[in-house]
From TrEMBL:
InterPro entries: FliL
Protein name as catalogued: Flagellar protein FliL
Record-level GO cellular component terms: bacterial-type flagellum basal body; plasma membrane
GO biological process annotation, one example: chemotaxis
Keywords on record: Cell membrane, Chemotaxis, Flagellar rotation, Membrane, Transmembrane, Transmembrane helix
Protein species of origin: Marinococcus halophilus
Length: 143
């Protein structure tokens, strides 16, 4: 009985150690992406960023519209070039996503951040040469 109890304690301890090790590794991996962006110089960041042209489109309900511009930061040079080549697809994605949002959905910094995250996810679905790390809203007027 004592041997069985000791074995269970050892197995539980080993499982806890493995979980702790794997959990901290994934947290480090998530944090490394943010740290990588923070470590880039302004020049390096500019080289990885593609600036979209101004766009005007309807918001949900068709009685309001938004005039906006975005800059998309890629994780590598090939991905930045791919963003330029996929400009028509990215414009389409943005038009479709904004058409689902009301002015209240993108109100304030929290709404803007949610919109940027959603656009990043959708654009990354079509990317093959890398990923978009961040979407920056560089202009926004809602009328």
């Amino acid at each position: 009985m004592m041997i069985m109890l000791l074995t269970l304690v050892l197995i539980a301890g080993a499982a806890a150690a493995v979980y702790q090790f794997l959990g901290s590794s994934s947290e480090k991996a998530e944090g490394s992406e943010e740290k990588k962006t923070e470590e880039l110089s302004a020049e390096e960041l500019r080289e990885l960023t593609w600036d979209m042209e101004e766009m005007t489109t309807n918001l949900k309900g068709n009685d309001r519209y938004i005039k906006t511009m975005f800059s998309l930061q890629a994780d590598n040079e090939k991905a930045r070039k791919e963003l330029e080549q996929r400009d028509y697809q990215i414009n389409n994605i943005i038009i479709h996503e904004l058409a689902q949002l009301s002015p209240e959905d993108i109100e304030g910094s929290e709404g803007t951040t949610k919109m940027e995250e959603r656009l990043k996810e959708k654009v990354n679905e079509v990317m093959t040469e890398g990923k978009v790390q961040r979407v920056y809203t560089t202009e926004r007027v809602i009328q």
